[in-house]
Design brief:
The complex is a heterodimer.
Chain A: E1 27-31, E2 37-42, H1 46-65, H2 68-84, H3 86-97, H4 101-119, H5 125-129, E3 131-133, E4 139-147, E5 150-154, H6 162-173, E6 177-181, H7 188-198, E7 207-210, H8 214-223, E8 229-231, H9 240-247, E9 253-255, H10 270-273, E10 276-284
Parallel strand pairs in A: 5-6, 5-8, 6-7, 8-9
Antiparallel strand pairs in A: 1-2, 3-4, 4-10
Helix pairs in contact in A: 1-8, 2-4, 3-4, 4-6, 8-9
Chain B: E1 19-20, E2 22-24, E3 27-29, E4 36-40, E5 45-50, H1 55-71, H2 78-94, H3 96-107, H4 111-132, E6 150-154, H5 160-173, E7 177-181, H6 188-199, E8 207-209, H7 214-221, E9 228-232, H8 235-245, E10 251-255, E11 261-264, H9 270-282, E12 294-298, H10 299-314, H11 334-349, E13 353-356, E14 371-374, H12 381-384, E15 391-397, H13 400-407, E16 415-419, H14 423-432, E17 437-440, E18 459-460, H15 465-468
Classes of the chains: A alpha/beta, B alpha/beta.
Chain lengths: 287, 475
């Protein structure tokens, strides 16, 4: 054993590029797979969620208006910084998920590569999903994918980093901004990811991360009028139908949870498509 | 007119070395060819000596590329290839200033262009294609499109680093290995790119870069173990290569010459059009295959436009490529300067009206003052042939149909420009253009996401975008 006493980290929320404690002053203990205490996490509240939506909305024009190339560069930068924190993530994932170090390594490596995969999509989504429409008339018509807006993401409860990255990256790659509720019992990798995002040229407010009780925070996001879409992946099964009903209040796009989604498999475009609108433009053609 | 103090970029930043060697199988090696001396066209001074390839070296490079393809690169998962290519993009960005200065020294282009266009576009090309490496199944060529094998690539001297990027990035992303030959007069940035590829730790043989003249290029494009040939350069050489490959079944893409029409309608925003016309023909000294070298102006605004154009062109500063205030740099070689001079003389002889900017030119180096010919008719050589220099030919038209007919009256078909405030007319004219790239109310825009390439004798195949991947896939 080392003689030195290590400095323990305070795990906080990530809102608007800053790391506040919950405005409620609450926290809850986080334990590892064996039940040993790891840290206290902030227990986010309704007000924290609303604050997060406000800054996510503020960040939307800038982020969605950035060139796809620029977004790609920023996201790739996130991957570079993730790689630098690889050892820290391996330790946190091993502790959170109770897996062997080797398994944790593989999960972290896949998570970093997943982030790179989505970074490469920023400037390719439009060419794959958009196109011109050969309308029967003297018009030039084309359809383009555009980000839907502010997306509330209920992150997977089990996969603390790979699952989290697999649901956050596709949301922001296309220009949306996100309010993420982390895994309730395994929130620490999410806070460390926030530290990566905060130091990777990602504008503040593009991703906001709340830790706390998913069932407590989710309804406020599902019914929030300034949220455009809702990812139910990490919603407790008993709450999903209610959340979907709340989302109908402002006709939110809802990505339903897929039963036992395996995040180690290479994804398809479903998560990118889920938070895109299609805009069709017409213009007359003629002398 | 404002006075400008010189604002020279420091030549030291280029880290110029007295000798450069070729890059084969992951090593820098001497070739058995006669070494060439590369010259700074801005001063006529020798910059460096570069080792060149003999036929045996070409063979060695192709063998190394084949080995790397069979053993490593062709079977590597796309997600791993992607990370190598991202590294190259980042290293180009990190060494951007060095590359820009070296490019301006070796090529003669103004530093503001190498710094703001060539180098960033080269990096962007690698960045964009890195992302494709693990997404090829989404590109529209079937679920698992396969690479071709070894790509032999020959590039011109007008955008040395950028052309290398346009060639190498998609080839690697699709899983091919590469033998590339840069132009005889501009080999340096490609050989620094080789250094970058070494720093990025690419497996040996994945990229091989040879130096030399046309004979080395011919040895690369005609090598029997090359699966795909990509050539950017003159239409004349493109035709020779197409003949060479006839019957071999090898895949070929060609990006050749052009004689682009830049059409100005009477409702165009004239000041904006003037900027676009100037950019279209004087960017990179007019050494641009898609240059807007034929200006077609609607008769009713021709006098007004020409007056504005002369006034604007008079302000262009011609001179030291390393001066940040320079608008038009040096012509790349004495040979090219002579070719421009000869074609300009035919313009005089055939009765066009010549106007030349009165700007001062440096005493040493290869320079040509910006020149505008008016009263040009379609039959004149300066209206038909690619001058590849800072020389604009102005023709007029009366009706939109006449503009279209004149614009398309060329065996080329690389690019076209349209200037009008009317959106419907832009789309109408764009549809009528027999050209691969059409710019409306802008000119000379390049982006890795936007396919680039020509119709007719400007070549076939596209570079960039989803479409550009086809050139490097077995589809």
């Amino acid at each position: 054993m080392s003689d030195r006493i290590s400095v323990a980290k305070t795990y906080k929320l990530y809102i608007g590029g800053a790391f506040p404690r919950s405005e409620s002053g609450r926290s809850y203990p986080v334990v590892d797979a064996k039940g040993t205490f790891l840290a206290n996490a902030a227990q986010g509240s309704r007000k924290d969620a609303r604050d997060a939506v406000t800054v996510a909305r503020k960040a939307f024009p800038g982020w969605s208006g950035a060139t796809a190339y620029n977004r790609g560069q920023v996201l790739y930068r996130v991957a570079e910084v993730l790689e630098g924190r690889r050892e820290q993530f391996i330790a946190e994932v091993a502790a959170a998920e109770g897996v062997a170090v080797k398994k944790a390594q593989s999960l972290v490596d896949t998570a970093i590569d997943r982030w790179v995969w989505y970074a490469g999509w920023t400037d390719k989504v439009a060419t794959v999903l958009g196109g011109s429409n050969p309308v029967a008339g003297p018009y030039f018509s084309f359809s383009l994918p555009e980000p839907t807006g502010v997306v509330a993401v209920l992150a997977p409860q089990q996969s603390s980093l790979l699952g989290l990255i697999s649901v956050v990256a596709p949301v922001i790659a296309t220009g949306n901004t996100a309010v993420v509720v982390s895994s309730q019992d395994r929130p620490l990798p999410a806070v460390t990811l926030s530290e990566v995002l905060a130091t990777s040229d990602l504008p503040g407010g593009v991703v906001n991360v709340l830790t706390g009780r998913t069932a407590e925070i989710a309804p406020w996001l599902a019914s929030h009028a300034d949220v455009n879409a809702l990812d139910l992946t990490g919603a407790p099964e008993s709450t999903r139908a209610d959340l979907e009903r709340s989302a109908a209040g402002t006709v939110k796009r809802v990505l339903r949870a897929r039963p036992s989604e395996d995040f180690t498999r290479e994804p398809d475009l479903a998560r990118l498509r889920a938070f895109l609108e299609t805009k069709t433009v017409w213009h007359p053609m003629g002398v | 007119m404002w006075e400008y103090a010189p604002a020279p970029e420091s030549r030291d930043i280029a880290n110029l070395k007295p000798n450069y060697r070729m890059f084969i199988d992951g090593q820098f090696v001497e070739g058995a060819g006669e070494p060439l001396k590369t010259v700074n066209p801005g001063t006529e001074e020798v910059l460096a000596e570069v080792s060149t390839a003999a036929p045996a070296d070409v063979d060695k490079a192709v063998k190394a590329a084949r080995r790397a393809y069979d053993r490593v690169w062709g079977r590597m998962p796309g997600s791993e290839r992607a990370k190598y290519i991202f590294r190259i993009a980042r290293l180009i960005q990190e060494r951007g200033r060095e590359l820009a200065v070296l490019e301006s020294l070796d090529n003669g282009k103004p530093i503001k262009e190498s710094r703001d266009v060539d180098v960033p576009t080269a990096a962007a090309h690698f960045f964009y294609h890195a992302g494709w490496a693990d997404k090829l199944g989404y590109a529209g060529y079937g679920p698992d499109p396969r690479p071709l094998g070894v790509a032999g690539q020959v590039i011109p001297w007008n955008f040395p680093l950028m052309m290398a990027a346009w060639k190498i990035a998609p080839a690697l992303a699709c899983g091919n290995t590469v033998v590339l030959k840069p132009a005889e007069t501009t080999p340096l940035t490609a050989l620094v790119l080789a250094e970058i590829i070494q720093q990025a730790d690419l497996p040996p043989g994945v990229v091989n870069i040879l130096a030399g003249a046309g004979d080395v290029g011919a040895a690369v494009t005609s090598h029997p173990d090359v699966d795909k040939v990509a050539f950017t350069g003159s239409t004349e050489v493109g035709k020779i290569i197409q003949r060479q490959l006839a019957g071999t079944g090898r895949k070929l893409t060609l990006e050749l010459g052009g004689k682009a029409a830049n059409i100005v309608f009477d409702d165009a925003p004239l000041d904006q059009a003037v900027e676009g016309i100037v950019n279209g023909i004087f960017f990179n000294q007019g050494h641009v295959c898609c240059a807007g070298s034929r200006l077609l102006v609607q008769e009713s605004v021709a006098d007004e436009l020409l007056e504005k154009l002369h006034a604007r062109v008079s302000t262009l500063r011609v001179g030291d490529p390393l001066d940040k205030n320079t608008d038009v740099g040096a012509i790349n070689s004495r040979e090219q300067l002579t070719k421009i001079q000869q074609l300009v003389e035919t313009g005089d002889a055939e009765g066009a009206e010549r106007w030349t900017s009165a700007c001062p030119l440096p005493d040493k180096g290869f320079y040509f003052a910006p020149t505008v010919f008016s009263n040009v008719s379609q039959a004149m050589r300066i209206a038909r042939e690619e001058i590849f220099g800072p020389v604009l030919s102005v023709l007029t038209f009366r009706t939109p149909d006449e503009a279209v007919a004149k614009a398309n009256n060329t065996p080329y078909g690389l690019s076209a420009g349209i200037w009008t405030e009317k959106g419907s007319r832009i789309l109408w004219a764009a549809q009528k253009m027999r050209a691969g790239v059409v710019w409306a109310n802008t000119f000379n825009r390049f982006d890795p996401t936007a396919p680039f390439g020509g119709y007719q004798e400007s070549g076939f195949g596209r570079e960039g975008g989803r479409t550009g991947l086809e050139a490097y896939l077995d589809v």
